[in-house]
């Protein structure tokens, strides 16, 4: 029975492999991504998904055609689509090619574009926000374009060949309405699917004709049932074995974490029973104490308060994440303690406290010259690259701020506090949440408004942090619109006076090139459009390689400007001047006036 089950699996694998080989018959040639961008989660995107589903699900065989037009939605968000297959390809190859094209055209080849054409050697698929049915279109052209004044696209394609491929033994021209190719070898299939003949009508049954043999049914049905039963049994035991391996892996992971567990007596002895003399700081999560283990190792103990927002789930999350992370710019976890009501995290002791204790302190800010600040910026960037790309996991921090950057004895930065971090799958790019957590002033606009977060959310927080390090100003301190950090920096950047935002204690000795470049990078990171923000890997490259050119930034997210040509309302008659607050760039409705407090959608407390 075991060998028969193995035989069934082998046959199934062969059939699946054959199916995949058939599906993979699509040779990519060229793509054209034109038109405007559509907004994610918009009506147009929904209509596009319906259209591509309709195109890919259309079965060419029973319809005896290799061409299909479709539309989805209504104006102004209607989407027009079409596919064409070569006349010499089989119906199955045509269907497979269209299926692949439908998947690739939106996800990988031309994301967020309203008008796209993708050419494979076997088929062509296109969609647009305007109707193109029965319209000859010569643009764009794969290779070059020579439209002339002809009216037949075939003539255009053929006419292009002598000019484009002179003295060449092969070539092709591909246009939206046709394509042409020549080679020194056969490039078409000599055998194609024949049109499906209409079903034959069976003659009426008459006496004297033999009915189907009951012996055949008696033999066939048990065989089919037996094969299905054996296949199901084999699959069940394989899945059960796989599940056992997964459980064993989870147990090993738990054992690895449990090996880091401290008992409460050890922690109490190390901190002198959580003495106030050993307290390093306090926040919304609880308190941090300095401790000394029996071997002389200094540690920092994070003691979560009983009413802390970080519950057992977040606590275990931080333990599981930090236990697997090892980088010089990330704080190192020594262990944890979870006994009774106590939830404790034991970290390496970082003697110089957190970054905010330096850049916002009128005395200690003088300890950080420009070279140290520049080194801190680079170290934070490398730590985030490790989280986003280089570690075995893909982690979004979600609460990057100056208070969560610790400084060691050499003032090297270490990213800390992973209680709000989220783990991404290898192919995952973004996620949604209904619970907005973090610190006002550091959160990206798409996270504040829609609960969407990604690596680019951390990039936004990093950009705010860079501007804080350069200016010595807090991003969330001022209630005066003109003094909001992002608006303040952008106005000076726009006027060409960017160096005036530099922290006054740094103006005697600094690198002009490095300061300008860091301000430029900071502004790129805080762009309202997620797609425009660089990745952290790109940021590290920008900081280390000055030959890398930087794109021009647009006004940052949450940027407020004042316009003097707008008449004030009656209830604003007592306000200063005749200026009016204009909605920030990147907001959903720029014609509506907002106050600064409306940026946040929930009450947030720094942790």
Notes on the protein architecture:
The protein has 607 residues and is α+β, with helices and mostly antiparallel strands. The chain folds into 4 domains: 2-135, Killer Toxin P4, Chain A (2-Layer Sandwich); 223-259; 260-349, Phosphorylase Kinase, domain 1, CATH 3.30.200; 353-557, Transferase(Phosphotransferase), domain 1 (Orthogonal Bundle), CATH 1.10.510.10. The protein contains 15 helices and 20 strands. Helices cover 36% and strands 17% of the residues. The model is unreliable at 9-24, 144-156, 244-255, 423-434 and 563-607 (pLDDT under 50). A hairpin with a 6-residue loop joins strand 2 (67-72) and strand 3 (79-85). The protein has helices at 2-23, 43-57, 60-63, 91-109, 153-164, 214-258, 264-270, 312-322, 356-359, 370-390, 445-450, 455-471, 485-495, 512-525, 536-544, and strands at residues 28-37, 67-72, 79-85, 113-120, 123-128, 171-175, 178-182, 279-283, 286-292, 298-304, 333-339, 342-348, 394-396, 405-407, 413-415, 422-424, 430-432, 452-454, 562-563, 580-581. The longest helix has 45 residues, at 214-258. Its main location: membrane. The chain crosses the membrane at residues 216-239. This is Protein kinase domain-containing protein.
């Amino acid at each position: 029975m075991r060998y028969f089950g193995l035989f069934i699996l082998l046959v199934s694998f062969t059939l699946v492999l054959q199916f995949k080989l058939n599906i993979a018959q699509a040779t990519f040639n060229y793509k054209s991504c034109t038109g405007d961008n559509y907004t994610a989660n918009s009506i147009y995107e929904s209509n596009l998904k319906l259209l591509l589903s309709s195109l890919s699900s259309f079965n060419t065989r029973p319809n005896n055609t290799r061409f299909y037009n479709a539309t989805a939605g209504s104006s102004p968000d209607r989407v027009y689509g079409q596919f064409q297959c070569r006349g010499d390809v089989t119906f199955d190859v045509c269907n497979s090619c269209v299926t692949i094209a439908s998947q690739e055209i939106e996800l990988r080849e031309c994301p967020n574009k309203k008008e796209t054409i993708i050419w494979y050697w076997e088929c062509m698929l296109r969609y647009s926000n305007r109707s193109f049915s029965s319209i000859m279109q010569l643009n764009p052209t794969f290779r070059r374009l020579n439209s002339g004044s002809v009216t037949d696209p075939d003539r255009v394609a053929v006419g292009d060949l002598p000019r484009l491929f002179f003295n060449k033994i092969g070539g092709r021209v591909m246009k939206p309405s046709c394509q042409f190719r020549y080679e020194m070898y056969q490039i078409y299939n000599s055998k194609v699917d024949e049109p499906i003949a209409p079903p034959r009508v069976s003659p009426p049954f008459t006496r004297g004709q033999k009915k189907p043999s009951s012996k055949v049914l008696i033999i066939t049905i048990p065989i089919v049932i037996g094969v299905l039963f054996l296949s199901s049994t084999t699959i069940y035991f394989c899945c059960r074995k796989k599940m056992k391996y997964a459980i064993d892996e989870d147990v090993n992971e738990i054992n690895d974490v449990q090996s880091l567990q401290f008992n409460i007596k050890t922690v109490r002895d190390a901190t002198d029973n959580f003495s106030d003399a050993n307290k390093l700081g306090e926040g919304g999560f609880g308190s941090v104490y300095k401790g000394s283990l029996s071997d002389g190792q200094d540690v920092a103990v994070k003691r979560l308060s009983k009413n802390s927002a970080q519950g057992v789930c977040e606590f275990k999350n931080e333990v599981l994440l930090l236990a697997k992370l090892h980088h010089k710019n990330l704080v190192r976890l020594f262990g944890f303690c979870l006994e009774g009501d106590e939830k404790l995290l034991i970290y390496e002791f970082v003697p110089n406290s957190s970054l905010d204790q330096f850049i916002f302190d009128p005395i200690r800010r003088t300890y950080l010259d420009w070279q140290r600040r520049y080194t801190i910026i680079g170290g934070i960037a490398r730590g985030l690259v490790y989280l986003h790309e280089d570690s075995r996991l893909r982690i979004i921090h979600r609460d990057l701020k100056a208070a969560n950057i610790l400084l060691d004895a050499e003032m090297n930065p270490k990213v800390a506090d992973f209680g709000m971090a989220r783990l991404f799958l290898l192919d995952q790019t973004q996620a949604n949440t209904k619970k907005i957590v973090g610190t006002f002033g550091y959160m990206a606009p798409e996270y504040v408004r829609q609960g969407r977060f990604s690596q680019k959310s951390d990039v936004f927080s990093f950009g705010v942090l860079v501007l804080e390090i350069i200016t010595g100003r807090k991003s969330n301190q001022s209630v005066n619109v003109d003094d909001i950090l992002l608006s303040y920096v952008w106005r000076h950047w726009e006027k060409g006076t960017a160096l005036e935002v530099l922290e006054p204690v740094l103006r005697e000795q600094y690198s002009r090139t490095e300061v300008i470049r860091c301000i430029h990078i900071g502004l790129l990171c805080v762009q309202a459009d997620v797609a425009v923000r660089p990745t952290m890997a790109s940021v590290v490259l920008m900081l280390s390689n000055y030959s890398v050119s930087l794109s021009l930034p647009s006004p940052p997210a949450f940027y407020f400007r004042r316009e003097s040509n707008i008449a004030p309302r009656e209830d604003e008659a007592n306000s200063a001047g005749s200026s009016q607050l204009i909605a920030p760039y990147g907001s959903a409705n720029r014609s509506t006036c907002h106050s600064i407090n409306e940026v946040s959608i929930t009450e947030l407390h720094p942790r």
